[in-house]
What does this fold into?
Amino acid sequence: MKEIINLPVSKIEEEEYHINMGPQHPSTHGVLRLLVSLQGEIVKSLKPHCGYIHRGIEKMCEKDTYPQVIHLTDRMDYLSAHINNHAVCLLVEKALEIEVPERVKYIRTIMDELTRIQSHQLWWSSFGMDLGGLTCFFYGLRDREMILDIWEETTGSRFLQSYNCPGGVMRDIHPNFQKKVHAFIKTFKKKIKDYDRILSGNVIFENRSQGVGILSKEDAISYGVTGPSGRGSGWSCDIRKIEPYSMYGQVHFNEVLRYECDTYSRYMVRMQEMHESMNIIEQLIDNIPAGDHSAKMKAVIKLPAGEYFQRVESARGELDVYVVSDGNKTPYRMKFRTPSFTNLGVLDHISRGMKIADLVAIGASLDLVIPDIDR
Amino acid sequence: MDNDSLKARILEIVPEAQQEENKQYLTILVPAAKLHDLALKMKSTTDLAFDYLICLSGVDYGKQLAVVYHINSILQKHTVVIKVKTDDRINPSFDTVSDIWRTAEFHEREAYDMFGIRFNNHPDLRRIFLEEDWKGYPLRKDYVDEVNIVEF
Amino acid sequence: MTFNIYDFTSFNRWIDEGLNSIMSPTWALITEMAIIGIVFLLFYAVVGLFLVYAERKVCAFMQNRVGPNRVGPYGIFQTIADFIKLLMKELVYIKDSDKLLFNIAPFIVIIASFMALSAVPFAKGLHAIDFDIGILYVIAVSSLGVVGILLAGWSSNNKYSLIGAMRSGAQIVSYELSVGLSLLTIIVLAGTMQFSEIVEMQRNGWFIFKGHIPAIIAFIVFLIASTAETNRGPFDLAEAESELTAGFHTEYSGIKFAFFFLAEYMNMFLVASIAATVFWGGWMPFHVSGWAGFNTIMDYIPPLVWYFGKTAFIIWLMMLFKWTFPRLRIDQLLTLEWKYLLPINLVNILFMAFLVLMHWHF
It folds into this structure.
């Protein structure tokens, strides 16, 4: 009730009906509270209340050394853990002007794309579950297990691996790695057709998602909605194409763009991205060059004084790391511009005029991971 | 546009701007009063066309509080960093840019929450991560909290 | 006593004469009613338990997993364990709820489905009430269930429950039209509303084959509309777990929740048995008129097996719907009924009437 009293008077109207979705709610996928103001079934406005899982990562980074910071970045967007680590490692290597071996670049790119696929698999599972097709949950997670097994063998852990480190990767890939990745791609190419049959082509699903949650391209740019959500509105924002890093400059892949700007187009962008990721992996997996799995780094990493900025494309959108360094072994200020935080800002704008059931579909199509919002 | 012409254009709009040293992007320090004007012109002029605010960060430089804007143009494909600083640590305030780039709404709330920087004319300036009645601004360098922060 | 598994009328007469010879007619009547009541209660409970277990196994099979297999061989005692747990749960009293309505709501839902089930024939003679307006009675009585749902949502003093109850009320009231009209199509073909007559008329072929095109259309419409009536499958937004936690029965715990849960499965059984009786011949075996030898072979299988087999098949279809399709939104649901199913139904009745007049049925 306190929040309703503290709202500016112009925002409270007598006929409106406020309900809370969250923080404990099966659809918000994490602890996010949405204070929804309804008129019957129509959403009039929406206020997200975040901070339930705010751990002060940016403050902690000011006391941790750069290799220690990597472990904290895993826990921000836990479904793109590799990509988060990759961002910090790239920044450190660029600042120290270190050239990592080719092998490292190949491994990092392959791991990044596997991360992207498994994040989209989990997204698809929960999207189907939110809309009521409960079987999708089991199909998606069953296939994701193959990627988690691959990771467990190479990095020792299924989830939150902290595999990257400044200069390279922690340990070399397992001898079975290439074989297992090939097996995964072969199986998944068949299974992904099932996904399309259950959900993408289903008339009920199309009615639930077409025309729902329209986000125009100008709004997407103004709100900074990057990633598959932005590409579903026709904005070509893939950092892998704009500022290529690791091996992305040398592989051939298409940037998936759709122009309908609704939930269905955001959905189809992610489905197609899974195909593109498999394409990238296939180009790289057989050609990993021999070499070291890490460049030679000093024991204590000190970045020269100055400011550095690194952009990468995580599974949810553009992840940026901004470091202000004063020459010590810990960053003076480390700021993460996370995709989910920025994408949350647009949820209010695109859900106005939609119904509650659409709100669930829109939230699922934006693919928000709550620890990414709160950091 | 390359960095020199960008710098020239920005100096046309705000003659008091100063360049700071940075290997990556052109970094310009502008006085706080000219921020909103500059931002508006940067977005609306066609040869600058800065329509995408990548990142808005608050920084505590020890004596000064600053806000750093990384801004990019989709059409022209150039990036620029704008900084504004203030010496006032009791009541720091800048103009909001959320009417120009809507993404600034949430980012400015975060800067307010963590640093205490107020943004004039912001539509809804309240804390975003911490509770409404939290005392202090955690990311400032002089923030002391015996309960929650354990110093080794 | 002649216990004939193919014809229960002699069994009924034996019980009736036996009781009448022991006690006065009034007491015999009361005893008979008590026996029927107890048999039905037991049947209700057993079938409910079995259906819950079947749903879990069917759902697990479709989702590529095993389902309950720990409690008893192949997990058959799982539902009993679940119900014991529900019985032992604390009944949470809501502070500002309307106590009377809150308490009677689950009972209304159960009573409605109970009363409707009593009119359906299980085998020849195994029939609790044989009204001459059987179908009308069933439709009328099963509509009482919506009162229970609305009361449950209203009296819970909870915004989510209220939204769920309103949605459910709108949905059920709309789809009753389609259910009634699709059954009306078969009444036009049969010429009677009495259940036992309808089953007898299918002795030389089930109505779905006799009435070919309009009967098939009526069956499909009936299947869709009755899935919506029972709040199942793609029409379950009243209890959409991923949106409103549990909808109208959020605030119910323990035995009261068990009633709602049970009533949903029994409604599904009821609707499937009506479909089986009216469209697929009820307890009548599969006869083709003219093939006497084939018919005699079909007659060897007891009617009870036919009846439960058909009902089970339709229940399996309804479970398939639930676990495959995503959910419809409330406005899409109502659009489906009022703009698509209702006009199709009306045209279908005309078509069937035309068919009957021209004797173009089998």
Remarks:
- Chain C has one domain: 89-357.
- The CA atoms of residues 98 and 132 of chain C lie 40 Å apart.
- The radius of gyration of chain C is 21 Å.
- Residues 25-62 of chain C form the longest helix (38 residues).
